[in-house]
Structures are given as structure tokens and as C-alpha cells.
């Protein structure tokens, strides 16, 4: 329902248009349409601004969704001789599940925090075959046998400002967060060169910690005074976590020592509205 001020503004604009039409007789139809669109757009923006002056409720929410790797993290290229790709992650589309919340210290500005777990799979059989071919070329041997296990799994803790714009039951959120990523595991790989079973090349699973940042936007729709739905899209990026290797006496072939990570989360969930101070 429109507020009294908004109704008065609309009436004033209509009178202004009628007044102008009496004195300007030669305006084209396109000019009239342009002016009408301008006034309607201005009125809508002012209405939204007036509505957005309402204070936003603090909240806590739980969500789950799809997590799609991007950039180097998603690449599956091993590189070529003397130009090996040491950053490709071979990550797969996985999932993310977590909890988030926000405390508003100003009508539209608050401090948001997220805690979520994500998983992005591991090396497939095709990946292992491709990696095996690259080590065969790099070490100049007849064959290489690659065995893999494990997956990318991690926990992210993020904190930062969130701007929220309420429009009746709908709230639009925009946020920029920073924090840490704690790796729980990364894919592990062993490489056997020909029949050499005594010295296996090994890329170990990592439980390292690294810094990261995240930007995103979302919608929250209030079902009741206490409960709502939320829809989120967030992009996460980290320069990478450290990876340890064993039995690598030289740099021949692909050798990952730091794995960059980035992905896009698209999630849905429930939000519980709390009283604002």
C-alpha cells in the first residue's frame, strides 16, 4: 500500500503533466512517452527509497546448494613439456552447506558472517590417465601408473559488511566478506614410473589454512514475522592452500605446491528473523 507522501507526489506529478499539456501543443507522441516514463521511474525509485528506510531485522539462516569451481581450480590441463600446469585443480561441481547471519547496527548496514562446508570432488579415471601421460612425457619413460584418492573438502569462515534494502516482505542483500579457508582434505596422488615401486612420487592430501574473500548478493522473503526463505549467489576466491609432495628430487613434470581455489555457490535456505535493537 502506498504511503500518504507517495500518493501526494503522484498527484502532483499528474497535475504537472496536465499543466504542461495546456501550453505545449506541438509535442510529439515520443516526447510525451519519454516524459511519462521519466516521471514514473522517478516515482518508483523514490518509493523504493522511502520503503528502504525501514530498519532490517537481524537474522540467522541455514542454506544448501550447488558449488561450481571456476578459474584454475576447475581447469583440467596438465600442460606440456617444460611448461607444466601446476595450478589446474581438476575440481568438480559439488555442494555447499552452511549457516549465516547478520547483525544490523544501522538501518541498512550490518555485519554479516558465514560458516559453511564445501566439497568439490577429486580426480576422475580420465584425469588419472591424463596425468599419467604427462609424467610419462616429463620423465622420458615408457609408462606411468597414477593412483588417486580423496576429494577437495573445506570449511570457510567469513566476516564483513552487508547492505540490505527491504521492500515490503522482500529484502535485497549485497555483501563483501573476508576470512579463512580451512582445508579438510585434497585429492591424493601417487605416481609409479615404469616398474619402480620403491620410490613413488606422491602428492599428499592437505589440511592447510589460507585466507580468502567472498562477494555475493541474495534475496530474503518473509513468510511470517519470524520465518523466511533466502536465495543466495556468492563467489569465493583464495590464492591457494599449500600442497606437500614426496620423493620429488627434481621439478620434472607437474608438481603442485599451492592450489588456487575459487567457486560460485548458488544456494537456498531458511532464515529466522530476530528482533532488532
The amount of helix comes to 10-25%
- In terms of DSSP E residues, the strand content is over 45%
- Order of neighbouring strands in the sheet with most strands: 1-4-5-7-8-11-12-14
Estimated radius of gyration: 28 Å
In short:
This protein is an alpha+beta fold and 277 residues long. The protein is 21% helix and 47% strand.
Please describe what this structure looks like.
This protein has helices spanning 4-23, 29-51, 125-139; strands spanning 59-69, 79-80, 83-84, 94-104, 109-119, 144-149, 153-167, 170-185, 188-193, 201-203, 209-222, 227-242, 245-246, 258-273. The chain is of the alpha+beta class. The chain has an 8-stranded antiparallel barrel with strand order 1-4-5-7-8-11-12-14. Helix 1 (4-23) runs antiparallel to helix 2 (29-51).
Write the layout of secondary structure elements.
Blueprint: H1 4-23, H2 29-51, E1 59-69, E2 79-80, E3 83-84, E4 94-104, E5 109-119, H3 125-139, E6 144-149, E7 153-167, E8 170-185, E9 188-193, E10 201-203, E11 209-222, E12 227-242, E13 245-246, E14 258-273
Antiparallel strand pairs: 1-4, 1-14, 2-3, 4-5, 5-7, 6-9, 7-8, 8-11, 9-10, 10-13, 11-12, 12-14
Keywords:
elongated; eight-stranded antiparallel β-barrel; 277 residues; alpha+beta; four-stranded antiparallel sheet; disordered N terminus
Amino acid at each position: 500500500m502506498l504511503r500518504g507522501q507517495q500518493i501526494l507526489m503522484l498527484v502532483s506529478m499528474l497535475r504537472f503533466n496536465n499543466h504542461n499539456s495546456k501550453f505545449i501543443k506541438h509535442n510529439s507522441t515520443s516526447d510525451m512517452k519519454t516524459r511519462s516514463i521519466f516521471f514514473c521511474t522517478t516515482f518508483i525509485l523514490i518509493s523504493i527509497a522511502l520503503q528502504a528506510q525501514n530498519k532490517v531485522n537481524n537474522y540467522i539462516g541455514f542454506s544448501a546448494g550447488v558449488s561450481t569451481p571456476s578459474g584454475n581450480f576447475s581447469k583440467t590441463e596438465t600442460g606440456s613439456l617444460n611448461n607444466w600446469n601446476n595450478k589446474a585443480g581438476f575440481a568438480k561441481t559439488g555442494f555447499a552447506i552452511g549457516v549465516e547471519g547478520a547483525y544490523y547496527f544501522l538501518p541498512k548496514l550490518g555485519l554479516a558472517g558465514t560458516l559453511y562446508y564445501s566439497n568439490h570432488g577429486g580426480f576422475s579415471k580420465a584425469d588419472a590417465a591424463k596425468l599419467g601421460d604427462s609424467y610419462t612425457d616429463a620423465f622420458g619413460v615408457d609408462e606411468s601408473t597414477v593412483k588417486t584418492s580423496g576429494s577437495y573438502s573445506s570449511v570457510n569462515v567469513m566476516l564483513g559488511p552487508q547492505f540490505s534494502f527491504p521492500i515490503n516482505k522482500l529484502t535485497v542483500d549485497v555483501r563483501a566478506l573476508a576470512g579463512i579457508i580451512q582445508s579438510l582434505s585434497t585429492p591424493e596422488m601417487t605416481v609409479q614410473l615404469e616398474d619402480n615401486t620403491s620410490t613413488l612420487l606422491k602428492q599428499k592430501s592437505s589440511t592447510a589454512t589460507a585466507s580468502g574473500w567472498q562477494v555475493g548478493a541474495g534475496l530474503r522473503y518473509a513468510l511470517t514475522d519470524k520465518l523466511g526463505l533466502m536465495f543466495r549467489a556468492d563467489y569465493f576466491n583464495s590464492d591457494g592452500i599449500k600442497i606437500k609432495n614426496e620423493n620429488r628430487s627434481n621439478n620434472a613434470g607437474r608438481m603442485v605446491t599451492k592450489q588456487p581455489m575459487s567457486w560460485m555457490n548458488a544456494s537456498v535456505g531458511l532464515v529466522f528473523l530476530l528482533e532488532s535493537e
